[in-house]
Amino acid sequence: MCLGIPGEIVEILPDQPDLAKVDVSGVRRNINIGLITDDDPQPGDWILIHVGFALSKIDEAEAKAAMDFLEGIGQAYADEIEALMESRIE
Amino acid sequence: MAERPLTSEPAGRSADWAEAAVREHAHVEMASREEQVLERIERARRARPRLREENITLSHGAGGKATQTLIEAVFLDAFRNPLLEPLDDGAHFTVDGASMVFTTDSYVVSPLFFPGGDIGDLAVNGTVNDLAVSGAEPLHLSAGFILEEGFPVADLKRIVGSMRAAAQAAGVRIVTGDTKVVQRGKADGCYINTAGVGVVRRTLGGDVRPGDAVLVSGPIGEHGVTVMLARGELDIESDVTSDTAPLNGLVATLLDACGDGVRRMRDATRGGVATILNEVATDAGVAVVVEEDAFPVRPDVRGACELLGIDPLYVACEGRMVAIVSGDVADEALSALRAHPLGAGAAVVGRIKDDPPGLVLLKTAFGGTRIVDLLVGDPLPRIC
Amino acid sequence: MRYVDEYRDADKARALAASIASLCEPGRQYKFMEVCGGHTHTIYKHGLEDYLPENVTLVHGPGCPVCVIPMGRVDDTIHIAEQPDVIMTSFGDMMRVPGGRGSFFDSKAAGADIRMVYSPLDALKIARQNPDKKVVFMAIGFETTAPSTAMTVLRAKAEGLTNFSIFCNHVTIIPAIKAILDSPDLRLDGFIGPGHVSTVIGCRPYDFIAREYGKPLVVAGFEPLDILRSVHMLLQQLAEGRSEVENQYGRVVPWDGNLKALKVINETMELRPYFEWRGLGFISHSALRVRDAYAAFDAERIFEIPGSRVADPKACQCGEVLKGVLKPWECKVFGTACTPETPIGTCMVSSEGACAAYYNFGRFTRERVREATRG
Q1: Beta-carbon separation of C363 and B14 below 8 A
Q2: CB-CB under 8 Å, A74 with C15
Q3: Which pLDDT value is given to residue A78?
Q4: Those residues with Cβ within 8 angstroms of residue A17's Cβ, 6 or more apart along the chain or in another chain
Q5: Is residue C268 a contact partner of residue C291, using CB atoms and an 8 Å limit?
Q6: Given an 8 Å threshold on Cβ–Cβ distance, is B239 in contact with A51?
Q7: pLDDT score at C375
């Protein structure tokens, strides 16, 4: 139920209904994109793969926002981390 | 089809096998704290394994817990003798003062031909490697063939050609053999058994002890992923090839550089590196502490494993070894391995500690820690 | 690996952990339930609990679709597999789950044709390649997986296949969460919400949890930083006295879910009046079955299902573990009668079951492990 892996669409297969070739870290598999046709998937898009189907298109803006937050929190707490780690987590 | 009633009346029957298992352990006192429970588990694990199944299942052949239980409960139990007891890669004995090692392996891989090699390569390299990591110079191999009626002679010639080339590369000779043919439908085309004998030129440097370093000779999981993908059922394309290779040259290089600083070597086959690390931990009663980041893994092997939900640590290799060396020669060991073509991707992955004994601990790339236990059977692709 | 590696960054984890610690009220205990088995797996695999302060406890929930399959349904599947000319197909997760008479693996060893597949489309391929066999796909999973099964049934119909059917064991997540909320034994402060189920159903279905039960819920991704960030967001809500549904996994989860996916589920399947969940008993409107219009693809109508009901062994406490009432090591048979090699309950055999995760990954007191891995 939970295992979903991000992969990049390499090619929409011209003669196969709803199929796209997707790349995951150099490994390729045909994935059924029938569930996300409303999002107009194109080569270069990243999708979430689950049991051979694309469930969702990865939103790059959201991903960037999530990363920005994490970078920000890293900077803000850079010095306090050491002190807090010693006193609380260990 | 009638739907079920809302009230949960007691079900018609219960699982007898489960009730029996619970009764068997009923005498164990209840533990209330986590520490006590963990000790209870360790005691249960140290007890003699019992074979519960009435029929052999595929798990028994995977190299994990089920295989171990089968070996101890059936084979060791029946054949018990001092040479067999260590259950090592090969049996060590002396004949008129000469120290010898004797080993055997069977090859049932499907498909027979895959990117990077075929069953013939595995058959020669596998046995050569068992001898090499035991510290022996591999000398002579036997090759027994079980062939399926209807199997193409051209395929057989191809396999045998691979074996000749592999034997030549390893510096061994196939000196005796056997052939059987079974009816169509059995033997998946071709099964091969090889046995090998070698002579020990150098003894290894004693028991594994705290402070020793743990090395792997190259990227892991390539063979297992190659074969899984080559079966074609998963519809995954990739460029991964099997890592099948004879390791006797690499072993000699390591022994030349580090002498008796080399404690033990094991070749990682089915069950992967994780199985070897567990065997080292249990045999020597030490803790093997490794870093996830340190294990070399090719990106496409990693991609395939992520896609299937499998951990590369458990995926079979056929041309990689784990070497435990004394801590003070770790650097020399690494350089020696890397200087050899088959060891180009070698890495130090961890250390031996004394506590907790018998366990393999992993520091995750993320910085947390977890245990790496033996799997029961093969790593199965998962959806969850 | 993109969209994976950056969410496993240790430096960011340390920063988050510090921030989490600062959000905790001293002396207060926090208990969050992570519903998804996938979250349980990540937490143990990456050693996430090492990053959380002592007063934050993560409790494992019933979001493991393998764990909640009653033994009787396993027996029913084996019964179908043993019929003449049947090829049964199943995800790897189910292969070792013990029923009343053994697992799929045991049944395979005894001669049944049971094959592991990665996708329901693979089962369809087997059906095309074996026109003289009846191919059955054992469909499990929450709403995450149901759309894939639905699409496969639609393809089978479009291709005019007459030898393909599904044995439908899809379950729905909301009734499971509701059962937890209504459970008297449990006092939770919030939920780490299902990630991939939400790509299908969206985030709105969880509103009632925040509104009526006053518990915050954060829809979370499956990488370690996703989970830490979600804990952070929950603590932030509690600190600010809010109780809302938030989406941490925005890069994958759309707030409104996947309408097409919901449509295909609805086209081919409908809710059963009741379904038995292992450990949770009968829950109404909690599972799916094939609609009449697709009866030709419904294994329950093609084959005579015995409808086996097997009582869980009395000592099995999977139900309490699934509800988060018991930690794995608190189960009386954990580690002795019930081990990964000899599992009694599904929590031990499923790769994302809490007991299996704990036994395989976390089975050691944290101090000893940290001592050993230091230096």
Answers
A1: no
A2: yes
A3: 62
A4: A34
A5: yes
A6: no
A7: 53
pTM, 2 dp: 0.86
Of B37, B308, B368, the CB nearest to C335: B37
Task: Name the minimum distance, in Å, from the CA of A22 to any CA of chain B.
Answer: 10
Instruction: Give the number of A-B residue pairs with CB atoms closer than 8 Å.
Output: 47
**pLDDT for position B3:** 44
B190-200 and B98-107 as β-strands: parallel, antiparallel, unpaired?
antiparallel
Using the beta-carbon criterion (under 8 Å), do B287 and C1 form an inter-chain contact?
no
Q: Which residues on A lie below 8 Å from B300 (Cβ)? A: 25-27
Q: What is the ipTM, given to two decimal places?
A: 0.90
Strands of chain B (E only): list them.
13-14, 91-95, 98-107, 113-114, 117-118, 136-148, 173-182, 190-200, 213-216, 236-237, 262-267, 287-291, 321-325, 347-353, 360-363, 369-371
pLDDT in tens, C147-177: 999 999 999 999 999 999 999 999 999 999 9
In this complex, do C229 and A36 lie within 8 Å of one another by their Cβ atoms? no
Per-residue pLDDT at B263: 96
Nearest CA in chain A to B225: A27
pLDDT digit string (tens) for C102-152? 899 889 988 999 999 989 999 999 999 999 999 999 999 999 999 999 999
Query: Which of A1, A25, A76 faces C38 most closely, judged by CB atoms?
Result: A1
Is residue A1 a contact partner of residue B383, using CB atoms and an 8 Å limit? yes
HSE-CB for B278 with a 13 A CA cutoff:
18
The residue behind tokens 């053994």 is C102
The pLDDT of residue C368 is above 70: no
